[in-house]
Amino acid sequence: MARSFHKNKKPRDRFTVEIESLDQDGRGVAHREGKAVFVEGALPHEVVTYERIRNKTSFEIGRLVELHNEGPLRVKPRCPHFGLEPGCCGGCAMQHLDPFAQVAIKQRVLLDALWHIGKTKPENILPPIYGPFWGYRHRARFTVRDVTKKGGVLVGFHERSSSYVADMHSCAILPKHVSDMIDPLRELVSTLTIRQRLPQIEVAVDGHGRTALVFRNLEPLGEGDEEKLLAFGDQYGADIWLQAKGPDSAAPIRPELENALGLYLSEFDVRIAFKPTDFTQVNHALNETMVSRAVRLLRLTPESRVVDFFCGLGNFTLPLARRSARVIGLEGSEGLVSRAKAGAAENGLADKTDFVARNLFTWSEQDWDAIWKKMGGIDRLLLDPPREGAQAVCQVLAATDKRPERVVYVSCNPATLARDCAILQHQGGWRLLEAGVMNMFPHTGHVESMAVLVPGPKPIPSEKAEDKAESGDSRPAEAA
């Protein structure tokens, strides 16, 4: 019996197709009249009817409206707010897909990106890293709106494909104690004098469960607001912070709690103090496994000299220092560098670490030579860039003769990882030894991955490559 998923007052064009595969956003992929069709909510081996919501020359996007047969990968979503209907929460995209199948899809997305974008493939595929599928998200940003038509204050994530706030009362990917705060937070905000000027609440939970709530207040608290906030924090075990302007303005109402949150890496006996507005990995269990794998893949010795690019607060730097002779952490933010130094001192690693503030998106051979000289040579390198990747660093590594023995690249964007691996391999002769995914964000389309590269013979420039360089074509000749 067919199941209906979505009702629209003004039905769009509808078509029936058989789903062949999934794309990286968890949409079912089919073909109709020579065009690729991407269907939200559909899974492989299912026959579905979809309504077309976007029509282009070579593809179209649709939304599942009727499921004629259920595929083997479909599971019942755990969260009551997940779905395709208007008003459903947009925080997850794949709760209807078996969690292990999600990881297989992400592995395929990574390998496809490496081949189609970078014209490269790893010599060995790393086994996927798994963590908890539920209750894993230790960082979140709730949007807050006072919506009279919906009964008052809403606190939660945005609706699917919308700027509206979902009317949600729980969240299966948040720790249970945070999920249980959603309704009390709605009640709390409704009593504040600044409820119309409080657009978001940021949540951060540390490795021991300590929780901070950052209230973004666009105007000063009114009479009685602070007392209500503190009473809420005492009742629900949360440190209360206020943020009047940018992230750097965030501060706890009780100043003694400024360094109360800590990221713990027990294998390396490291604690990294962080603020709730700092970037830290959202999945603590997966982060510990990820750091452990990166350190192991670098094959450190007690004499190793390591550089950690995009080091942040030292999530990799400090564990690396436990296993090597010396580590330099490079980061674009002066503030983060200062706090990373303090973290190294607190962990007894100040004598084995150094931290330098530098714009890594304009990295040059002169910068590399200076660090090489400062370290007396570099034999290991770790890259953990943001979504933009590490193009400038990789171009230097491809060109220089001063090459480390091993590079581990931690990526949150398969496309930029593929681009950077192509630079290293095709321009610098590096070998892509291993690559694999990490399930940092279950039930979403985010793909986190790790790659290992080692130096190989540099390619001999061809006339074709020289011609392309002169013409301004920066792509490697092999990928052009």
Automatic annotation (TrEMBL):
Record-annotated active site: 412, 412 (nucleophile)
Molecular function per GO: 4 iron, 4 sulfur cluster binding; iron ion binding; RNA binding; rRNA (uridine-C5-)-methyltransferase activity
Biological processes per GO annotation: rRNA base methylation
Gene that produces this protein: rlmD
EC number(s) given by UniProt: 2.1.1.190
CDD domains: AdoMet_MTases (cd02440)
Protein name: 23S rRNA (uracil(1939)-C(5))-methyltransferase RlmD
Species name: Mesosutterella multiformis
One Pfam family from the record: tRNA_U5-meth_tr
Catalyzed reactions: uridine(1939) in 23S rRNA + S-adenosyl-L-methionine = 5-methyluridine(1939) in 23S rRNA + S-adenosyl-L-homocysteine + H(+)
Lineage of source species: Bacteria, Pseudomonadati, Pseudomonadota, Betaproteobacteria, Burkholderiales
